[in-house]
Design goal:
By secondary structure, this protein is mostly helical. The chain is built from ten helices and no strands. The model has no long low-confidence stretch (mean pLDDT about 95).
């Protein structure tokens, strides 16, 4: 199998089109917003909020939910985008074959051991999910906050220096969400 046929500089553009096709019939929890807006925002957070401009990271941000939520498999990502992107997307994918608690535990362990790029990408995912939770009920926002705490606890393990500013931004957004729940 030939891998990574896309020039690195073109990866985000190709990944945006790939993600749009893969998620084309999905909606966010509000049942109105196209799901793909989430992965586009995660990519924007990686680049413009966190300041990472590696095209492979931007592609992985766009593709981070494709294996978990669509018919895409890791080989699809590997053949189009190469080993780094496929490895990072796989690390951001929960094993849906496992029961919920085992799946979450395995995912948290994977995040704790992951490359710094995966931690940065997950932080961008959390940042967007926290910001996008305003339409949820108070109970939904509390569940979003609890999940964020769970994933942050895993990500903090062996936290590399280059990801610490992103972590601080996510922690600030989480604190703002929680403050809104008590007022």
């Amino acid at each position: 199998m030939q891998t990574n046929t896309i020039p690195t500089a073109d990866m985000p553009f190709e990944a945006a089109a790939f993600a749009a096709r893969a998620h084309q019939h999905q909606k966010r929890k509000d049942n109105q917003t196209p799901y793909v807006s989430h992965v586009f925002r995660v990519c924007l957070v990686v680049r413009h909020t966190f300041g990472f401009d590696d095209p492979r990271m931007l592609a992985a941000a766009l593709l981070h939910d494709t294996i978990e939520d669509t018919a895409t498999d890791c080989d699809d990502i590997l053949s189009r985008f190469g080993e780094d992107v496929a490895t990072w997307v796989a690390a951001l994918t929960k094993d849906m074959r496992l029961p919920h608690d085992a799946r979450e535990d395995a995912y948290a362990k994977g995040l704790a051991a992951a490359d710094w790029q995966v931690k940065a990408l997950k932080l961008a995912d959390l940042y967007d999910n926290l910001g996008d939770s305003k339409h949820l009920s108070p109970g939904g926002r509390k569940r979003t906050a609890a999940k964020a705490h769970f994933y942050l606890d895993a990500i903090r393990h062996n936290m590399p220096e280059q990801v610490r500013p992103a972590l601080a931004l996510v922690e600030q957004r989480l604190a703002e969400l929680e403050a809104g729940l008590t007022t």
